[in-house]
Hints:
The protein has helices at residues 14-33, 47-53, 79-89, 132-148, 161-169, 175-186, 190-197, 204-212, 220-229, 234-253, 314-323, 345-356, 395-403; strands at residues 37-38, 44-46, 63-65, 71-74, 97-105, 109-110, 115-116, 119-127, 154-160, 217-219, 259-262, 275-281, 287-293, 307-313, 334-340, 361-365, 375-382, 385-388, 391-393. By secondary structure, the chain is an alpha+beta fold. Helix 4 crosses helix 10, helix 5 (161-169) runs antiparallel to helix 10 (234-253) and helix 6 runs antiparallel to helix 7.
Amino acid sequence: MKPNTLDGVKMLHHDEMRNYDRIQGKIISVIMNHGCKIVETPSFEDYDVYQHFFPHLRRQMVKTVDTDGRVLVLRPDVTLPLVESAAREFPRPNQLLKFGYVSTVFREYFGRSTYGKDFLQGGIEILGDPSPECDGEVIVMAAEILKAVGVENIRIDIGTAAYTQALFDALPLQEAEKDWLRAYLADRNLVALRRYLGGLSLPGNARCALEALPVLFGPYAQTLGKAKDYCLNSGMLNALARLEKIYDYILYAGFADKVQLDFGFASRLGYYTDMVFKVYVDGALYDVIDGGRYDTLSAQFGIDRPACGFGMNINLLYEFMNDAGLLAQAEPSFQLAVSYAASDQVMVRDLMRWRSQGFRVAAYPESSFIDSRDYSIHAVYRGGSYYKDGRAVTAADLEEAMRGL
Length: 405
């Protein structure tokens, strides 16, 4: 009987692993250049914590039961356990903490042609810095990572949850009515939004601002000007003033030409309090990086500390880079493959010497099969001698050939 298998589950092969390792190395290099320390959060987390903060992820989370009967989940997110650990280990609220990570996250994802139940996520979290310059650095770091892996054609969409929240603070509505409006705005459902607004008693300027939000996106200067026209209070004006400082940082860093504003998108992670952003790569319909400022999350764990960060789905980035021809070409796993009828002391010592010098060498019985694409040079060992292409060669000849690759 054939066993059942999980859909979409496959192993990564040699060249895929090599490219993932290269991408991961570039990510870590960029974030360490910004003074971030590399960390790893626990693989298992308490289910109740995630159910409270991310109820929409309930069906996606991979659950298990601990030895004491407690329900745990495999890490569906990195930000939450990182902030929780930081609150416990670094209790000083204004201490600057800059963390970076590359970790496996266990939840479903869908790309253009790939999907899976887990993915490699890279990201950073900066804790203890409330400044708009911090927000600017977070966005610039995201852009630098993509540039480092060869992805230059990107678009950075920036919005602000503080602007929307200040607008809602000015609305003379019940909280339940605001929740309906938030849902329609998050879905950019203009028809349902206008229908619902038609049944509410609102000032004309507030109604206009709400109707404009889902379509308030585009070039920086033009969109910022429109957003100022819809301001109803100082909170909305302050949110835009902060956004201007963030943009200045990005401008000075050399990435302003990648920026556009979007006041309509909303993250499903409800903890964002101010700047939010997404980064799209050319030709992809989905964002590969998203993040923002979340100044109230740490307080849930006893330490009131501002924070800003982002996460990136490296699997989706890999898919795009593969389609765009930006990955390293396939190469043989071995530089030298040695088939033998019988091994002896001479062959084993040659193998050890070559490997100690950093050469990739595989030895196998003649009865075994190795795909010719897996090696650059093939030699046969018989009776104390090596043969290549039917001609006797020395160990030194093979070593020289490997050096010439």
